Predict the structure of V-SNARE coiled-coil homology domain-containing protein.
Amino acid sequence: LPPAMASLEMRERPQIIYALVIRSQKVVLVQHTTMTGNFQQVMLQQVLPKLSLHVEFQSYTWGDYAFHYITDEEQELWYVCMAEKRMGRRIPFAFLTAVQEIFRCYSRDQVQSAIAHGMEKDFRPSLEQLMDKYNSPEADRTAMMLEKVQSINDNLMEGLEKILERREKIELLVTRSQTLSSSAGSFAREAGRVRRNVWWKNVRMLFALVGLVLLIIFIVAVSSCGITF
């Protein structure tokens, strides 16, 4: 356990211990903690230099603890919380998202003009209320239910996509079948025309051969009879 966190004791249920909203990576607008400790010092000296405004969400581990944050690049804000590492990421990020949603009720001018800790009076009660909510056992059950609902929704969407994909394949097969059927009809008509032409050609050739044979027989017969022309 890092010296800065040595005074913290692990609880039966992992907790979100510390949360704050920071502007421009150095101005703490509001913060709240459920325990005593040098959290802000650790945050400002060890964690903040690692945060990037261009990364939407990220986590850093610090001994048995983890720092999670999400960003608002437009207002240059970081929503950060510290939680026990064994809590995972799902609940801390759900908590930070809820904090961000409520904090958005403040205008850009209010946020940019606020001095350090200048929003403690207005927003700290909301921050405390949200931390209590997401530290309760009910929050974990709710998160699990939401995760299951999301999983079911994802499975339904995946099934729907497969059905639509299968339908597209069937329609493609029908189109190809119709094209082949049309091509087969054209081929049959062309084959019939060629067959008739060949038949008439053979008939004409047969008549020509028969005529030639008859002519030869006639000439031979006439010559045998001594008939001259």
